[in-house]
Amino acid sequence: MIIIKNDLCDFCGACVSVCPVDVIELFESRLLIDHEKCTECINCVKVCPFKVLEFHK
Amino acid sequence: MNKFYDIVVVGGGPAGSTAARVAAQRGAKVLLLEKDREIGVPVRCGEAVGEKGLRRVLEPKPEWIANKIEAVRLVAPDGTIVKVYHEDIGFVLDRKRFDYDLAMMAAQQGVRVVTKAYVYGLLTENGTVTGIKVFHLGNHFQVKAKVVIGADGVESRVGRWSGLKTNVKLKDMETCVQMTVSNIKLEKSYCDFYFSNQLAPGGYLWVFPKNEHLANIGMGISGEYAAHKAPLEYLQEFIEKKFPEAAVLTTVAGGVPCAPFMDKVVTNGLMLIGDAAHQANPVTGGGIIQSIIASEIAGKVAAAAVKENDPSENRLSEYAKQWDKENGGNHRRAYRLKEAVYKLTDDELNRTAAAISKKPSEKQTIVNIFKTALIQHPKLIPDVIKIFLAGN
Q1: Is B166 touching A (CB cutoff 8 A)?
Q2: Least CB-CB distance to A13: which of B153, B160, B232?
Q3: Does residue A28 have a pLDDT over 80?
């Protein structure tokens, strides 16, 4: 499962852009992920400039 | 916010404001929606721009310009500095003022600008986009429009909701961090670019001064190379080493699509512009000028389509055709170049810098630098010449 540390996030949208299944949603200051539809490709984890997203098995 | 507009533009950056202004000038009733609380903030941008390019699209106002740049310096991994002689000098902008003004110019043409307006879906009828769903100050609204323009940046979802492929491959996403740093001392007339696989693998690090004591220092690396070390960590290490006394005033993250030319940027009732349409130059990551040029075309075509009451993909694809003619060739060449340049080893970069340093200063041009760097890739040399002699 992908965990988002929202308090560290800068809301830049890089993770949204590289998500192949479009399950990340970015509000002004909130990032949400639809865990049910997530395929755990971890593109978002790799791309995040601040390493706000983490993959937990 | 009314319930009907001719055109709704999603995103209040330079692309969105430009398309909105141009369409309104041609008589369209336009709504411009920005999700953040303020236009122009946060500034996720190095803010450097070529003077020629800027003058091509707008007459620069003094208050947009933080600093005038006289030359670019490229720094090799071993520290060799190559000063590039190029006739197109540039500016470090004040993007906040710039973006504010572009939105104001749109408003002066009658565009209705609304901030804190979060668009969360599209309205569609029979395969045509007919409006948007927006959340604004606690209320949900549906706004109908003949044309929706997605200027919603790198994270563009407007395009994806309509079926356009706006997602970017990991390797083509430059993951960036920038700090605006004070309490340093620099020569303010130079923009510096550091190329090194230690500092910024698959990308570069930049120092763009706003004055002698203030600079945007940032870096971008390919998403492929960012898995094990965050850009934030790379940048902190560089600043601690190079500017130990620095005071960091701002830290921002960002993603820049350095992607192949996006052919399909329209569908029935919908157009994409700016980062949402991957219009940044894949080599430099710069996107302001291209976005504005594309948005002018999009605004004109959208206004004409509204007048003719024909928002079909066929009608709107006039924008895609004109944009391809304007920049398609250059973008495709730049993408090929990016694929080769960001694979150079530190040894190759050092050898390039050493060879160029031996040339007379007037030969230390960007074309010659790329020619030398890409000596193993002779097929790319015509691309280099076409790109840089076209002044893009």
Answers
A1: yes
A2: B153
A3: no
